[in-house]
Amino acid sequence: MSTITDVETIALRARVDAKDFDSSSETLVVRVTDEQGRTGVGEADAPAEAASRLVLMNDVHAWSRGLRAMLVGRDPFEREALWHELYEGTLWHGRRGLGIHVLSAVDVALHDLAGKQLERPVYQLLGGKRRERLTPYATLWPGAVAGRTIDQMMDVISILAQRALKAGFRAVKMEVFFGDLIGDNELVGCIREGRRLLGDDTTMMVDFGYRWRDWRAALWVLNRLEDCNLYFAEATLQHDDLVGHAKLASRCETRVGGAEMAATVHECKEWLERGSVDVLQPDIGRCGGLTELRRIAQLAELYGALVVPHFWKTGITAAASLHWQAASPNAPFIEMLSPAVFSSPLRAELTQPEPEVEDGTMALPTAPGLGIELVEEAVRTYRVPT
Ligand code: MG
User: Which of 16, 34, 267, 350 has the most crowded Cβ, counting Cβ within 10 A?
Assistant: First the structure.
């Protein structure tokens, strides 16, 4: 056993645009170190400056403790026991918000470190491989509308689609955060154009960016897209409109997805029971880490649902997603923010090596832990004080 000797936070910030939705513009990395100097890393998809304080803060009382103080001196191998201890130690301010996001980062870092200690890839710590190849999908994010016309937006989507296919992806998600730039009728035409750009052999998903407050409007559009063979429809209704999701899911042919902002198995259970969604999309860096995403996937299986985690961060979460899919039977795809498709400095530069996509699939990682290293030059370039 080699215990944890240090827990650091590394806040990194590249380009931030408050009018866009690019959460890879910033990250909070949590790095844990053991007695032999081995390190494990995880990241939270949360505001880095605020999240960092929850790691480094002094204890307030038994339900409001700093994570660092609870981790130093502990055995990283006991991940699940530690998860519960950290969860209870942050109950007062954690549970569903920033506290669980930071716990997510710690949990991934503990998996990385324990894997390195055992010299085994993380997917083996998650129960072992359930598949020989991994299947990512690429997301086409054209950016927020920001004064552009729909033709300009579709031109960007067309370029991104070509990049994704050229990079080897055979599953692609089109993001249609068009707001009131176009009406629903025109939206149907844009998605048909997306299908034409991708060809019939590509698996196609659509993220509607929380377009509707009216499930019947969402149903109207999805009914008109049945011949586009969409794999799932994401973020159709408002995130907390679970009743609307349930009505939509019971009436349309397309799989209904959601829950990208959901924290823990408890919130995902509400999405399954009350929202009746077909696809849960929690984020590893928000929902509670690998430990919790495993519980979520096990629960989803009991409800006949799939889990396809959201991911829009750096190579740390990319690696965590690969290991998680390797060990998860009801995870047909993982979201992959690919540096070959979307330009994001932190995603492209923070970690190495970058996994290769080959005819739509990726190989299982073989190196110990998450199998990636932080690039120290990128850390120096983008680090901001916490
Ligand atoms: Mg989304």
Answer: 350
